[in-house]
Design brief:
With 451 residues, the chain is mainly alpha-helical. It contains 17 helices and two strands. Helix 2 packs parallel to helix 17.
């Protein structure tokens, strides 16, 4: 008798991303995918497929000069799938084909997006996909005046590619070998890119919650904030603090750095600082030379990269809600409070446990990758840490180390990007499906010394 293999949700997510990466790597290894008509080494095709699907942005070969239009289309499709999530894409296809979802699939997606019914699930998935395409389309249209001016008809394709890449927080571009550095003082390119990164990084739950409040509550100004859900309040407030707090620190550290912003006007310095703060939130576009940053600005960037964006969006990292819950838990312990609370609401113990688990898993991936990469490369500690944090949090910023990696270094970063993208997501969903085991027999408690 044939035994049917059943996969749990975590295994399904791991396998689905792996299949997409492998298919993408095979397509990118074909001669038609390169501008020269000669196949790139498979390790570079695999690296590119991984960085696109995991929406990271680290590249071993220049995207604009290596890949043909076919190759760039493959990369863009991988970015879109990776940004939306394989499960979201498959659900959208199922809905488009008017096929019914299985109960297990419905529960998986419903819990992941905090929905309660199949009807609500279908509507939510439709809104996510439609909203994504609308925002990406608007972004592309706003990009076109500048890119068409600079690149002619090819600027249309660059605008579309850049918009999708920015919205999905991929950080891959086909402009040139300097990313967005030529546009560091361009308000339109900076503004559109930052808007795409921030909007997608807030997460879809926040989108619909904000729209609900604006639509149903007749209250003007900041008073609308109190009608938002606790999740949205945490996301919006922490996002503002991280963006402008990070920008202020980067501005202070880089103010007199002649290799970055020292020779800019005050407005341009502020603009470049804000962009650096935003792009470190897992976007990966570089408007400043990352290798020229001061050590202080580099450390600030590492911190912002590790945190990343917010849940149920396209961004990576441990997420804003996670870091807020961890900070609140530490504060509650310091002041001897039993409950972890914010905005006059208590946070569940399950959410606290999940935050600790996600942070520790990401930190473990980053540390193991750092140690392994240090073993196979001669780069400095800061360069290695910048690379591994960027890979773990799916950011894509590098101090120019990625193209210099040997085959072992590439394999390490490939694995880091994969587990960095999959690890926290899988763990979060696994926690959502973990069944409580009722057991009246417990191990005895004994006090220990901590700290």
């Amino acid at each position: 008798m044939k035994r049917r293999i059943k996969l749990n949700t975590t295994q399904l997510i791991l396998l689905s991303f792996l299949v997409v990466i492998l298919v993408g790597s095979i397509l990118l290894s074909l001669p038609i995918s390169t501008q020269t008509g000669e196949s790139v080494p498979y390790i570079d095709a695999l690296f590119t497929a991984t960085t696109a699907t995991c929406v990271t942005g680290l590249v071993t070969v220049p995207t604009y000069s290596t890949w043909s239009v076919f190759g760039q289309v493959v990369i863009l499709i991988l970015i879109q799938i990776g940004g939306l999530g394989v499960i979201t894409v498959l659900s959208g296809i199922t809905i488009a084909l008017h096929r019914k979802m299985k109960l297990g699939d419905s529960r998986l997606i419903s819990d992941a997006f905090n929905l309660n019914s199949l009807e609500g699930l279908s509507a939510f998935i439709k809104k996510v996909i439609l909203g994504t395409f609308i925002v990406e389309g608007v972004g592309a249209l706003l990009y076109m005046p500048v890119f068409v001016r600079d690149f002619g008809a090819r600027g249309v394709w660059i605008a579309i590619f850049n918009s999708i890449s920015a919205f999905c927080n991929a950080g891959i571009d086909i402009i040139g070998d300097s990313s967005l550095m030529p546009y560091v003082t361009d308000p339109l390119i900076n503004g559109v890119t930052c808007a795409l990164i921030v909007v997608s990084g807030l997460g879809y739950i926040v989108w619909w919650d904000v729209l609900r409040v604006l639509k149903n509550v007749r209250v003007q100004g900041l008073k609308c904030f109190r009608f938002l859900s606790l999740h949205s309040k945490i996301v919006l407030s922490s996002t503002l603090v991280l963006i402008f707090g990070g920008a202020a620190l980067i501005f202070a550290f880089e103010y007199s750095n002649a290799e970055t912003i020292a020779n800019m006007s005050l407005f341009e310095k502020i603009q470049a600082s804000i962009f650096q703060s935003v792009t470190t939130r897992t976007a990966g576009f570089a408007a400043l030379d990352q290798s020229a940053l001061t050590e202080g600005a580099s450390i600030v960037s590492l911190f912002l990269m590790f945190i990343g964006g917010s849940p149920v969006g396209t961004a990576g990292g441990i997420k804003t809600v996670t870091i807020v819950v961890l900070a609140l838990t530490a504060y509650a312990a310091i002041v001897a409070r039993n409950d972890v609370s914010i905005f006059n609401r208590s946070i569940s113990k399950q959410a606290v446990r999940k935050a600790v688990a996600v942070a520790m898993m990401s930190f473990s991936i980053m540390m193991i990758s750092t140690l392994l990469l240090a073993f196979v490369t001669d780069a400095t500690a800061l360069e290695i840490l910048y690379e591994t944090v960027s890979a773990t949090a799916t950011v894509g910023l590098s101090k120019n180390l990625t193209p210099l990696l040997n085959i072992w270094g590439k394999i390490i970063i490939i694995c880091t990007m994969y587990f960095g993208r999959i690890g926290p997501i899988s763990l979060a969903i696994a926690f959502s499906y973990q069944k409580e085991i009722v057991n009246n027999i417990k191990d005895p408690t004994e006090e220990i010394s901590v700290g």
